[in-house]
# Entry
Amino acid sequence: MSGFRGTDDTGRVADPLTPESLRPLLWEAAASVLVEPVDGTAGSRALAVRAPAGRWRVEVGRPGEDAVVATVPNTDAAFDALRSWAADDGWWLEAFTWTPAG
# Structure
């Protein structure tokens, strides 16, 4: 997960982002968590937004370009998706059903 920072909707930042800092960021976020590269380059990012019934809507990719979205069942699943995406291990793609964002 190196090279990323996480920011919640209240402005709380985890930099550098680690699994140990991502989990509480998600659990304590009021509405959303953004994961983005620390180098400031425009590109892929992941955004998790709280959805009804304890779910999260996770969007990954470049907004308006190649972004995909999945609704995951709970905060632990959102953590797993974001952690896997930032680690670039590909698990997140297989674990959930992704559709084009739009």
Summary: Residues 4-100 form one domain. The two ends are 27 Å apart (CA to CA). The chain has one domain: 4-100.
